[in-house]
Amino acid sequence: MKNKCLVAILTYNNGENLKNLIARIPQDYPYDILVHVDGSSDGSDAILDQYPFAVLRQEKNVGIGRSLRNVFQYARRGGYTAVAIVPGNNKNDPAEAERLLQPIAEGRADYVQGSRYLPGSRRDHTPLFRLIMVKVHALLMSVLVCRRVTDALEGFRAIRMSILDDPAIQVEQDWLDTYGLETYLFYKVVSDKKYRYVEVPVSKIYPANRRSLFNRRGSNYSHIRPFIDWWHILKPLFYLVLKIKH
Predict the structure, then answer these.
(1) What was the pLDDT predicted at 220?
(2) Which of 36, 142, 163, 184 could in theory staple to 149 by disulfide, Cβ–Cβ 3.0 to 4.6 A?
(3) Are 80 and 7 in contact (CB under 8 A)?
(4) Complete domains list, the chain, with CATH
């Protein structure tokens, strides 16, 4: 089964974080690796020439939704049965992809969500605002999908590719080019009781010296723009619940 699983690293202007993330990949890593570069302009993806990984490059930055669709198309062409998504910002440990893919390989899950709030997880240096909003968002999702959800915003997750054969799940929609596709796919799968949903503990380590209003020289830890991208994240919930979109 492991040779049918793909680990996809998504990156956009991640600077040294991409280099540091790749350095954490074990030498005996059992999965094929794909790196998707979403129009990076900081030169950070130049290091990929040193590695045997498959690379997809999008010329212009479009958004994580488009990146995910490109990854899914690649996985289909390659005959992969499961895909784990790893953000390229070095806040997650790629060695933990095993935790995400194992439940799918064992036939216990169709969608596996990494969680910062399960026993065995880590969330070092997480900004207080993020800690609160992840919990509030998880509570909202729990109510909407009628299942217990502890973390629906963690980008470290895995899916069984056959989910995308469901005609009710239409990921190839342009309005899902940005952060909305993650929310759309989560809601569509987890709200449908025919799919097996599992959460596993993961590590989400923010930089200790992170940038803030009071520390402008700290490390930039996110590309999410307040209000604009918050709306992109939440928009699918309004559209789907109100049946404005499908």
Answers:
(1) 74
(2) 142
(3) no
(4) 2-241 (3.90.550.10)
